[in-house]
Amino acid sequence: MMSPRLKFLFAGAAMIVGCDDVREVQVLVTPGLEEGVLSTGEPPVARVEISAIALDGEIQLQATAAPGEGFDLGELPDTSIVTFELTGTTGDGEIVARGRSVAVDLGKLDTTDAPLPLFIQRLGTFARPPGGVLRSHVHASAGTLAEQFLILTGGDAAYGSDGPVDPSFADYYDLLTLQGFESGQKLPVSARSMVVRGTALLLISDDEAMYVDLRSGVESTVEPTEQYSWSEVSGGATIDGPNGTSFVVGPTRAEDPTNVVVLVDVSGSATAVRLNQERARAAAVYVDQVGLVIVGGANMGPGVEVVREDLSVTALSFPSDPVTGGAAVVSPTVSELVIVLGGRDQSAPAATKVYDLRCPTDCLPTEIQLDLSPIASRGKAFVAGNEIVAVGDAEPDEDGLGETLAFIVDLAEGRVDPLPFRERRRGAVPVPAPNGTLVVMGGVTPAGQPARTVEVFFPGR
What we know:
Layout: E1 3-9, E2 22-30, H1 37-40, E3 47-54, E4 59-65, E5 71-75, E6 81-89, E7 95-100, E8 104-105, E9 116-119, E10 121-122, E11 126-127, E12 136-138, E13 141-145, E14 149-153, E15 157-160, E16 163-165, E17 170-174, E18 179-182, E19 193-197, E20 200-204, E21 209-213, E22 219-221, E23 237-240, E24 246-249, E25 258-264, E26 270-279, E27 283-287, E28 291-295, E29 304-307, E30 313-315, E31 327-330, E32 337-341, E33 344-345, E34 348-349, E35 352-356, E36 366-368, E37 377-384, E38 387-393, E39 404-410, E40 415-418, E41 429-432, E42 438-441, E43 455-457
Parallel strand pairs: 1-2, 2-9
Antiparallel strand pairs: 1-5, 3-4, 3-6, 6-7, 6-8, 7-10, 11-43, 12-15, 13-14, 14-17, 15-16, 17-18, 19-20, 20-21, 21-22, 23-24, 24-25, 25-26, 27-28, 28-29, 29-30, 31-32, 32-35, 33-34, 35-36, 37-38, 38-39, 39-40, 41-42, 42-43
C-alpha cells in the first residue's frame, strides 16, 4: 500500500511519483480570484497553517509556512479521508484568513495533471474561489450533491454566454476541484422547488414532480395524493430538518398564497399537510425540538404556525402577521427564539422581531433595533458562530430585479454591517455548503450578464 506524501505550494506544480511505497500528492493553496489578498490586505498574513483532520476531528498532520513557501506535511495512509483546514495569521498571531476543504479520500486522489486546489480567504468578507458556473440561473433551485457539488437549476430564467437558455439545464460547481461544469442534457422538469438526496433530485414544477438520480440516470414520477397538487407547493423554499427530512414550504413562495407544506422523509417519500392559514412570502425556519416554524405572510389567521415531526400543525398564540419577504433564523443563544429580519409590512420596511416559542397565550413578538430594511423579499438567514448572515433581494428598480444583498448581524452589539459581494448580482441564491461556509451563486449582473462566479463567506471575523 502506498502512502501519500503531501506537499503544499503557493504555486502550481505537477505530481511527483516517488519510489517504493510513497507517492507525493501536491496541493495548491490559492486565494482564488482575489489575487494578492493575503499579502496586500491589512493586516498582511505572515503565516499559513495547514492541518489534515480525520473524520473524527483528530488532527493527523500539521505544517506551517509563510505565504510563498512550500509545505511538507509528511505521510498518511492512502485509506485516509481527511479535511484540510487552512488558517492565516498575522505577525501578532491574529487569525485573519481561513479555508476548509470538503472531505478528501486520499486513495482516490490523483494529482497527476494538476495539484488539488485549497481555497483560503480573508475573514469578514465574501471571496471568489477559482472557476465558476458556466450558465447562471435567476432565483434558481439550488442545493448540495453528494457532499461535494453545488447545483443550480430551474428558476425564473437562465443565461449562458450566448444569451438565454432553457432553465431545465443544470449547472454544477465542484467544491473539491474548485471548477464548474454543465450538464449536457436538460433535466426532465424545470424545477421551481427542489429536494436533494445524495445524488438524487426531487424536481417540482407547477404540473409535476420527478425523482432523477444523476448517478444511475433512473427517473420516476412522484404522484401527489388527493389532498394536494404540486401547483400548491411549487416555488416554495426547501428547509432541511433533522434525520434527513426536508420540508418544501409552499407559503414562502413569492406568488399565489397557499397553505401546503410537503415533508420529504429520508426514504424520499412525500407527505403533505395544510396550515390553518394560506400565506405568501412567509418566513420559515426549522427549530430543533419544535419543528418547522412559519411566520407571517398573511393579514389574517394566526401569526405563527408549527409543523411538527409527526405532521401535526399547531397555531401559536401570536396575532396575524402581514410581514412578507423576511428572513427567519433561530437565535444563536436561545433555541426557542425565532428572529425575523427584513421584509415588508404592507409595503413599509418591517421591524426586526423576536418570537418566543415558549409563550403559552396572548403572545406578542418583541421588536429589536436592528435595521435590515434593504431586504425587501426572499430573505434567508444563517447562523455564523455568534453572528447571523442575512441575504435577500432589495426592491426592484428601473433596471429590473432587486439587487441581491447580504448583511452580517451582531446581536450582542446590536449592529448590522453590509456584507458586499465581489460581483454585484440580481436574483442570486445562498447555499449552505458542506464545508461549513455560505455560498452565494447565480443571478445576473446589473448589466444583465450571467453572474458565473461563486462567492464564499467563511464564518467568523
